[in-house]
Amino acid sequence: MTEILNFYNSCPFLYFTYIFVLGLLVGSFLNVVIYRVPIMMEKSFKRDYLEYFEPDSELLKKEEETFNLFVPRSRCPNCGHKITAWENIPVLSWLFLRGKCSGCKQPISYRYPAIETLSGLLTLASAIIFPPSLSLAGCILLMWFLIALSFIDFDKMLLPDEITLPLIWLGLIFNYFGAFCSLEDALIGAVAGYMILWSFYWLFKLVTGKEGMGYGDFKLTSAIGAWCGWQMLPATIFLSAIFGAVIGVTYLVLVNKGKSRPIPYGPYIAMAGIIVMWWGKSINNWYLGSVV
Fold first, then answer.
1. Could you tell me if 112 and 14 are in contact, meaning their C-beta atoms sit under 8 angstroms apart?
2. Residue 273 — pLDDT band, cuts 50, 70, 90?
């Protein structure tokens, strides 16, 4: 840590450049996580179903291609062209290829470089806000988790336990060492974050007969509480509601043309979580000062 601090103090431009490039590289991997985790879950669900209800099914005996976060190599979904190393450079490869597959020339979604850039910028912003420390490492890790969860929820209306539950435990572990708050505050935050939205869910269901959100939203809010402490939950819930109302309604009007459609709430919790991670204490101090 001393060497990193010396590097940070003596060569800040290079330090921030390395941090940004690290964020870009991880953003490339997050694209894989966002695409593959739901498919891995679907394959697991199908296999579990067959093993329980149809143990003699021929599908169980069929040898499936290994599919996880690392195997098989990334390929074009249209022509099957395997992505080479030079085609996998974050952002730059997409620009050099002019947004098209080198094999079939079909367009490559702009979302790939957009997620890489978002990861780079959030990682860089975290490094600007936090000096080299355990807090910075935790903040950056949380940013990466939230990016993956946000886009998976946007695509599939799903916040996988495989990501949310480890995120809760990681928050408690980091705060065992006092990275952001005391372990006691983190533990209360994890419990309260879950129970508050769980209570809203059942109150809304009893009044309207409809489900207003999913259990993944409870777990994600619990994770924010585990990382930031229970003191940050009011700001998290308030900001997520504001983001959901403004962005969600705008999306329904402009994209869905007013058609009724469920809106993923996870991205708004994630956005609120990022803000309270960066500026939560200032927000609380401002609020408490304004009401006293």
1. no
2. very high
Determine the Cα–Cα distance for residues 236 and 277; give it in Å rounded to an integer.
10
Please name which of 166, 189, 158 lies closest in space to residue 265, comparing C-alpha atoms. 158
DSSP 155-199: HHS---HHHHHHHHHHHHHHHHTTSSS-HHHHHHHHHHHHHHHHH
| Pairwise CA distance, residues 215 & 197, whole Å | 9
* pLDDT, tens digit (0-9, with 9 covering 90-100), for 97-140: 999 998 898 999 999 999 999 999 999 999 999 999 999 999 99
Which of 64-68, 212-216, 222-226 shows the highest mean pLDDT? 222-226
pLDDT band for position 146 (cuts 50, 70, 90): very high
Nearest to 140 by CA among 117, 152, 122: 122
Residue whose entry in the numeric block shows the structure tokens 């509480």: 225
> CA nearest 150: which of 255, 268, 24?
268
Nearest to 118 by CA among 141, 95, 91: 91
Closest CA to 72 of 32, 118, 99: 32
Structure tokens at 273: 């979580």
Tokens of 34: 């966002």
**Main-chain phi, psi angles of 184, to 5 degrees:** -60, -45
The position carrying tokens 């001393």 is 2
Interatomic CA distance for residues 289 and 108, integer angstroms? 50
* Paired tokens of 202: 């059942």
Distance CA 203, CA 36 (A): 35
Over the Cα atoms of the chain, what is R_g? 21
% of residues, the chain, pLDDT over 70: 96
